[in-house]
């Protein structure tokens, strides 16, 4: 196996409408081939996607198709915070190498935030980032595309608020003039007004306009000659310049602080969402629990209705689970008419669809695939009634979806590990069985073969006593083999659940008497007694199986006790159950062996004189049969010496009609 494949290398390439993006994708494809790594192409779809030009949309579609044709799995997420979303997806998908193109949009001034590439590197410190340079023509085209992106959007409310604050600053300045305050105090009032404007408005346009307006108002209202923009003193030109720069810097700093505070608050809330969701999902034991917690978190944090279509046993989607808010409309009113059809397309393509998406944009809901790498766990539908999520809401949803995917992947990995462990255990059982059979069957088969050979060759020279011993040995060995095969077949059917119990009402004492007729011939060398209850103990059972339990327990006592030992079979009523015990006064069983005595293939430490150890199936079979009858079996000491195997079976009450 390749070294990189062992390490699980995963490469993520970012898709964009840039004309140089095919070059970036091809570099990622070659890297994936070199490292023999899985390749995913990610497109972060901004909320203003509808404002893209037709050329940009056409180029983006071509780049997505190009990535798919070259073997990349396509993933689409929505949001404006591209660096954070790319870094989160890289973390969720286990990406080890990230391939991006160098953005042609650089810093415009010293207080501008870092470029897109720089932010991705800062947000994904544990991922190797490979930057593919653009050509000069591509950079010029990108700069041309991104120039309109920084336009301002004034609103009537903020415009009126700015005018009111400037008027208030002017009025306070008039009051200061009446009381003889210096012009420096009035300048401070206007700077304070610009600061308040910056805090209360969103667009930076208002702080700049407020800075300029404050200078003009100060000149118009408070500098001689008043109510004109002329001045008799030239030093006021410097005052105006300093006042304008001070106001502008104050407003800019206030906007930056406000933006940072808002961003910090959102990041704090988002971190809490991730923490709470992660804590809840860690307690999930099944995939249904994960889906339930995810739906509940969407309702709690976003107040939106959601439907989750889990992956079915086959390749399609199962039945959707609806999560609705308390004040939501009926399910029929909220759902798209073709919701199931869209969800199945999203499941098959691993792409988002629905409201404001490239695919099925006419829908009133958003559809997102719950997938990681090439495995899809289902589809989540946000029923939005035609109202798209805000940027921050979409960021929270992306965080919840990411935690959901991680939890599902963790459960899937745990299930695969458990399955691998089970297969290893089964393989070990098969190995133990083959090893035990090869060892234990060889002795009786060799004995039978040898005795048969002696009979064929020397039958006429043997006396009756020798022949009797040979016949007896052949019989004992064949009986041992018959019992072994019977136990193997029975325990195989019980463990696989293929044994169907044919229950009938039986008297326990009669079953015990019948079982004694089929025990080992060596039982005649021991003192076996039966102490049955005076009451009639009726039990619903499969007679053949319970007889096999009794035969195994009695033969076990015969085999492991000295000649002439006392073996007692006792039956009694215990509450609503019948208890049957097989007691002996043999050497007993060591404490270290007792916890394993009912395990399959466990034979303890004893060595049998004739070389036949047994496969450790008899007691394991007894346990399986008794539990199939909803009973229990246990081992205890028979003081002062020996051991006691006992099992209980539910009693059946019989109504007698007179």
Largest sheet properties = 5 strands, parallel
Determine the CATH topology of the largest domain.
Heat Shock Protein 90
Q: Can you count the helices?
A: 19
CA(first)-CA(last) distance? 79 Å
In helices, the fraction of residues equals 40-55%
- Assembly status: single chain
Number of strands: 17
| Fraction of residues in β-strands | 15-25%
Strand order of the largest sheet: 3-2-1-4-5
Rg, Cα atoms, Å? 42 Å
Count of structural domains:
4
- Judged by helices, strands and strand pairing, the structural class is alpha/beta
Globally, the shape reads elongated
**CATH level 1 class label of the largest domain:** Alpha Beta
For CATH, the homologous superfamily of the largest domain is named as: Histidine kinase-like ATPase, C-terminal domain
CATH architecture of the largest domain: 2-Layer Sandwich
